[in-house]
Design a protein that fits this description.
Belongs to the FPP/GGPP synthase family. This is Farnesyl diphosphate synthase. Keywords: Isoprene biosynthesis, Magnesium, Metal-binding, Transferase. One of its GO terms (molecular function) is metal ion binding. Its cofactor is Mg(2+). By secondary structure, this protein is an all-alpha fold. It has a single domain, classed as Orthogonal Bundle (Farnesyl Diphosphate Synthase), CATH 1.10.600.10. It has a two-stranded antiparallel ribbon. A hairpin with a 2-residue loop joins strand 1 and strand 2. Helix 3 packs across helix 9 and helix 4 packs antiparallel against helix 9. It is globular.
Length: 295
């Protein structure tokens, strides 16, 4: 695919996404809470999860407006998780997306409340009074809740915190990363696909694609943590090593970690090939972007 065509799709998609997100995150929440929320979620980032939602919807020729809501909801969940993960009681980080973390800029209490409010807002965005059928609302909420809770992101973070200073084997590390990072990326693809009609075969293939790139994303994150500096990453480099956390680099070594990320990309492409769907071009390029990125 011509890179310019993909870039044009990204530009169009993110323009609509940013407009919707800006409209749905309230500036007038009381006592400065809206300012903290908007600082957390409107400050840029890769926007990979929203793009996966929109690409998943495109692959099944689904309801674009429902997918736009799903894209915003996923990013709200992701942003809330970053706010909480960066706090002193968790990863204690001071830099995110190239600027001070929310608890540094607004204080710990306001950061905690901003995260809470964004989590709630995600499900409010998914459940409008009209425009999205109740059945689709319920399905989208279920996919997002399962990916965010004890079986997904929150559970993965709990394992992460409990694993500091411990030696994990590759299977345990994979389970942690699948929960902490991979499941929400997988859910992003499936929420987009839920906005249209899919066969069981296509749904499973998209699920397998999402699982592969979800894990690949975290493997590459582990690589970048030791190969890039903070200015490039937009967050503190080397923090996992400094915190004595197990990573794919510490378990496999740098060269093998990179090879594993490439194998996962191959699995993602193979899944798309057997999906039977004609419009998977955006998902295919996104898989490459996940592995080839430098931040």
């Amino acid at each position: 695919m011509d890179a310019g065509v993909f870039d044009q799709w990204v530009q169009r998609s993110l323009h609509a996404f940013e407009q919707a997100l800006d409209a749905w995150v309230p500036a007038d929440a009381p006592a400065g809470l809206g300012d903290a929320m908007r600082y957390a979620v409107l400050g840029g980032g890769k926007r990979l999860r929203p793009l996966l939602v929109l690409a998943g919807c495109d692959a099944v020729q689904g309801d674009a407006q429902a997918a736009l809501r799903a894209a915003c909801a996923v990013e709200l969940i992701h942003a809330y998780s970053l706010v909480h993960d960066d706090m002193p009681c968790m990863d204690n980080d001071v830099l995110r997306r190239g600027k001070p973390t929310v608890h540094v800029a607004y204080g710990e209490a306001q950061a905690m409340l901003a995260g809470d409010a964004m989590q709630a807002l995600a499900f409010e965005v998914l459940t409008p009074d009209e425009g999205v059928s109740p059945a689709l609302q319920a399905r989208l909420c279920a996919l997002l809740a399962r990916a965010s809770g004890h079986a997904g992101m929150a559970g993965g973070q709990a394992i992460d915190l409990a694993s500091v200073g411990k030696c994990l084997d590759e299977q345990a590390l994979r389970d942690m990363h699948r929960r902490k990072t991979g499941v929400l990326l997988q859910a992003s693809v499936l929420m987009g696909a839920a906005c249209g009609q899919t066969s069981p075969q296509a749904w499973q293939a998209l699920s397998d694609y999402g699982a592969a790139i979800g894990l690949a994303f975290q493997v590459v994150d582990d690589i970048l943590d030791v190969t890039q500096d903070s200015a490039v990453l937009g967050k503190t480099a080397g923090k996992d090593q400094d915190a004595n956390k197990p990573t794919y680099v510490s378990v496999l070594g740098l060269e093998q970690a990179h090879a594993y990320a490439c194998r996962l990309r191959g699995q993602a492409h193979e899944a798309l090939a057997r999906s039977g769907l004609a419009s998977t071009a955006w998902l295919s390029v996104l898989a490459d972007k996940v592995v080839d990125r430098d931040n």
